[in-house]
Structure formats: structure tokens, C-alpha cells
Write a structure and sequence with these properties.
Layout lengths: L5 H41 L6 H22 L15 H36 L9 H4 L2 H26 L8
Helix pairs in contact: 1-2, 2-5, 3-5
Length: 174
Amino acid sequence: MTTPTLAPALRRALLLLHRLEDLLLALLLGAMILVAAAQILLRNLFDWNFAWGDPFTRLLVLWVGLLGALAATRQNRHIAIDLVTHLLPPRARAAAQALNCLFAGAVCGVVAWYAVIFILEERGLGGAGLLGLPDWLLHAVIPLGFTLIALRYLLHALLRAWAAVSGSDTGEYA
């Protein structure tokens, strides 16, 4: 019996992680739509609503937005301004894309750093948020999301840098 190599095991682990991310994103999006629709119906039909409904929906918009950005970065389907790279030869294109990914990752890293500072300040204030949970915990998705996006950009940059040096296909990492 042979032991599996690292690459297939890593590929399976990443695939499982991606499926869990997609499941969480789908569940949160579904919850957001259900709560928002319930709020609209209750307001219009019964002149009543859930007191926690609007803050919960706003919080879900934040979570879904960041998890959606993380999924878009994973699939390399994020918003990109590409004026010149499509005119370059393959190796130069890969090098330019690596630089773009490094820059985007650095920006996301800076945002994540300041988001950590924000969360630590929120924690120090000690306010209770939705359903009695601390505000800092409910907003912890901000530094977590931007850190993961920065790491994904770094991974994309490394793959594209390797493609520029080796002349191989840029490919996807999962």
C-alpha cells in the first residue's frame, strides 16, 4: 500500500475547504434573503417586524460580501483593471499578473491590519451587539476575510511568478 503524495492530499483538502466556504456562503445568503423577505412581508401585511431583523440583515450583508469576495479571489473572478496585460507575451503577462496580485494582496493586508486594530478597539469598548454577542465578534469577519483574501492573492502571485520564470501555464491552485 502506498501513501498518497502531498499534492493530491493538498488538492483534496483545498477542495473540501472551498466546498465549506461555498456552503457557508450559500447558507448566509439564504438566511439574509429569508430574513429580509420576512421583514418586508411582516411590515406590509401586519405593520410589525422583528426588532433584530434589520441589524441581522446588515450584518449578513457584511459577511456575505466578504465571503463572496473571498470566493471571487479564489476563482480569480474578482474585479480587475486589465489595460495592457492581454497585449503582452505569456511570460511577461504572467509577470505583470504576479505584480498585480502582489499589489492587491498588499492592499488587502493593510486593510486586514487596520481591521484588527478596529476589532481590538471594539473589544476594549465592550459593547453588546446582536443577540447579546459582542460587537467585536460579529465584525471579526472583516480582518479574517481580508487576511484570507491577501493570502489568496499571495498564492496567485507565487503561481504567476512561477509561470513567468518557468514558462508553464499559470493554472489554478485547486
